[in-house]
Automatic annotation (TrEMBL):
This is Signal peptide peptidase SppA. The keyword Phosphoprotein does not apply. InterPro entries: ClpP (IPR001907), ClpP/crotonase-like_dom_sf (IPR029045), Pept_S49_SppA (IPR004635), Peptidase_S49 (IPR002142), S49_SppA_C (IPR047272). The gene is sppA. Residues 1-49 are annotated as: Disordered. Residues 182-328 form the Peptidase S49 domain. Belongs to the peptidase S49 family. Residues 8-21 have a biased composition (Polar residues). Keywords: Hydrolase, Membrane, Protease, Serine protease, Transmembrane, Transmembrane helix. It comes from the Bacteria. The chain crosses the membrane at residues 83-105. It holds the Pfam family Peptidase_S49.
Length: 368
């Protein structure tokens, strides 16, 4: 009896109580969840093997159709974008080609038979890649000079200056025209005619400016940065190979010693002297003996007149009235085609935003 009682007690100890059983089965409690739709391919109870295989095949076909549909949709989107960019490039090419053909075959403006004043504009920075470049302005000057009905040539200047080479080329052409005939060339300065722009104006027979125009700045400027310490702090090693000891003497990442500075200053002085000599040749004894005349200072139009840099105060309208009360104007400045103008503006804007100087020369006849 004791053995039976002990076995019964052991069984009772080994079997869990109903409360413990409820706690152990808490994850299986609750209503029965029906099988999901995704499990239908596994079949239903009682399906034979052929039915299961058919269900699996249909599920695979449905999955393949869905995948193929996604691939085709992506391909259609890709084709649409490719077509869009191809049409865009084709349109740009057609526009550029059309503008080129128009510029080549478009008839030039006929020279007026009646007496008129010929106008050539010098606007903005003077540079080879800017609208105010030597080739364009010289072309306008020559066309105006060859027009028999043009009573005078008016250089309408509104520029802070720019390239020494471009300015000197225009000045030389004006001086050549002055010596080859008696048609007057008048430079009219609007807001500013400084540095390289005044270099051009100095070649004219007369210079007219507003009392508040900015005139002068007869000097040469070079500006740069010394970054040799900055590159050392960043820990970057610059590797420059040259053939010639002084080939990289203007490298901003290398020291600028006294010998380099003295040499570069001599280049600036030589360029400045060329500027001075040409201004004296163009203006003659009309210049005053002021020591600051060629120091790079900028004066108002009224001050410039007392220094002999300007002949009279006035405007382009005053010049027109001087020749005729009803003078007819003809602009001989070669026009820029729209595509060229757009690309130039985009390039200049991008360069300004990036702080990049697009001029190939480090020297500038330009007001700071």
């Amino acid at each position: 009896m004791k053995d039976d009682d002990s076995r019964s007690n052991m069984n009772n100890d080994a079997s869990p109580s109903s409360e413990q059983q409820k706690m152990a089965d808490r994850w299986t409690q609750g209503p029965e969840v029906p099988p999901s739709k995704g499990n239908e391919e596994a079949g239903q109870p009682g399906d034979d093997a052929d039915t299961l295989r058919e269900r699996q095949r249909l599920a695979q076909i449905e999955m393949m159709d869905h995948w193929i549909g996604g691939v085709l949709a992506e391909q259609r989107r890709s084709r649409r974008w490719k077509l869009f960019f191809r049409l865009l490039m084709l349109t740009l090419f057609a526009v550029a080609l059309g503008l080129g053909i128009y510029r080549f075959y478009a008839p030039s403006e006929a020279t007026p038979a009646a007496a008129h004043l010929a106008r050539v504009d010098v606007n903005g920075v003077i540079a080879a890649d800017a609208p105010a470049n030597a080739e364009r302005i010289i072309e306008g000057l020559r066309n105006a000079w060859d027009a028999d009905s043009a009573e005078a040539i008016v250089l309408h200047i509104n520029s802070p200056g720019g390239s020494p080479v471009q300015s000197q080329r225009i000045y030389s052409e004006i001086m050549r025209l002055r010596e080859s005939g008696d048609k007057p060339i008048v430079a009219v300065i609007e807001d500013i005619g400084a540095s390289g722009a005044y270099y051009i104006a100095a070649g004219a027979d007369d210079i007219v400016a507003s009392p508040v125009s900015l005139v002068g700045s007869i000097g040469v400027i070079y500006a740069g940065f010394g970054l040799e310490e900055a590159i050392d702090r960043v820990g970057i090693e610059r590797r420059v190979l040259t053939a010639g000891d002084n080939k990289a003497f203007l490298d901003p990442f290398q020291p600028f010693d006294e010998e380099d500075e003295a040499f570069w200053q001599s280049v600036l002085e030589s360029t400045h002297q060329q500027f001075i000599d040409d201004v004296k040749a163009g203006r003659g004894d009309r210049l005053s003996d002021n020591d600051d005349l060629f120091s790079g200072l900028v004066w108002s139009g009224a001050q410039a007149q007392t220094l002999g840099l300007v002949d009279q105060l006035g405007s382009i309208d005053d010049v027109a009235r001087e020749y005729s009360d009803e003078a007819e104007w003809q602009n001989y400045t070669p026009s820029l085609d729209p595509f060229d103008r757009l690309t130039r503006r985009f390039t200049q804007t991008a360069a300004q935003l990036l702080g990049v100087d697009t001029s190939p020369s480090p020297l500038r006849f330009q007001s700071p």
